[in-house]
Design goal:
single chain; 324 residues; alpha+beta; 13-stranded antiparallel sheet; 6 helices
Length: 324
């Protein structure tokens, strides 16, 4: 076992340029997973769920034949280009609530985007308001970001790197998959716009150019695209076969995992994630196996001024009313 751990660490050093613990590998996996599946700043995953498609139901007319006249890949390419715009969203900023629930936490935050980067304030934990001590610690953290711009700059740098990787993965996906029109073209519920429904499976001829893009080999599922906005409104997929990173020494993702993404128009011409669920089992360094099961929901979208700075965004967070 000690030999396996040493081999795994050496493999990670070669792949990542550093030595990491199993827990740190899982954190890297989760970041890469979000980028690969959704490739959105909300974080978007490696793989997504195709479960219970028949239970989705149809309350809207089928897709018009003219929408399926073009090759299915053309819709995937347009949706990928649109997703890049969602990731970058230059000059368009919003604020919203975001709730994250997993095995370790149930937390509600207020998130505000700015021209300098995104900031957030913790509002509730485990369905209760913060204690006086927890709230003060959160206020101190936010004030520290104003007083120490260099700390915020580190966050922005990491975010920029994540966005670049996300854009790279979104750009790759149309070539990594084989897209076909779903036979029933049943629209996703809660949407009045015409939709195009695509099924996707890995292209066996695809040669992954990066470590992250190797995960496409284990992904198959279904995508619902708003035909007017050329934007993904829903995405399901499942991990139908094992995926190895670094020959399995860096990480191994087991089959059977599921993920599910939904997006909506948060503001005029600005889309955002509303729901993301992941259920994935991964082994790091051939030693530690963890099942990730989490839900993230975003809601109560509001537009903020295009010129808002991160300092002003933090002041809005500090001065906002909080649950009591």
């Amino acid at each position: 076992m000690h030999v396996q751990v040493a081999m795994g660490r050496r493999a990670m050093s070669k792949l990542c340029g550093t030595t990491m613990t199993p827990g740190e590998v899982l954190a890297v996996y989760r970041t890469r997973a979000c980028k690969l599946f959704t490739a959105t700043p909300i974080c978007v995953a490696i793989l997504a769920s195709a479960a219970s498609l028949s239970a989705l139901g149809a309350t809207q007319p089928s897709t018009a034949p003219s929408l399926t006249a073009a090759p299915a890949k053309a819709w995937a390419q347009e949706a990928a280009a649109r997703e890049v715009q969602i990731i970058v969203h230059p000059g368009s900023y919003i604020r919203y609530h975001q709730r994250t629930v997993d095995s370790r936490r149930d937390e509600l935050r207020e998130v505000i985007e700015s021209k300098d980067g995104t900031v957030a304030r913790l509002l509730m934990r485990d369905n209760r308001p913060l204690t006086e001590e927890e709230n003060q610690a959160e206020l101190d953290r936010l004030k520290n970001l104003i007083d120490h711009p260099a700390d915020f700059a580190k966050h922005v740098k990491n975010d920029a790197s994540s966005k670049k990787q996300a854009v790279d993965l979104v750009t790759i996906m149309p070539d990594a998959m084989i897209f076909t029109y779903a036979s029933d073209q049943t629209p996703a519920p809660n949407s009045t716009a015409p939709q195009v429904v695509l099924d996707y499976t890995p292209d066996p001829k695809f040669n992954p150019p990066t470590t992250e893009s190797q995960a496409f080999s284990g992904l198959r599922g279904r995508i619902w695209i708003d035909a007017s906005a050329k934007t993904i409104v829903r995405m399901h997929g499942d991990i139908f076969q094992s995926v190895n990173f670094g020959w399995g020494m860096l990480a191994h993702i087991y089959p059977g995992g599921k993920l599910d993404l939904e997006q909506t128009a948060a503001m005029a011409n600005r889309w955002n994630m509303t729901s993301f669920h992941e259920q994935v089992t991964v082994k790091a360094l051939m030693v530690k196996t963890i099942t990730l099961n989490s839900d993230v929901r975003s809601f109560d979208f509001q537009q903020v001024p295009d010129s808002i700075s991160y300092q002003d965004a933090i002041r809005l967070l500090i001065n906002m009313p909080v649950p009591k």
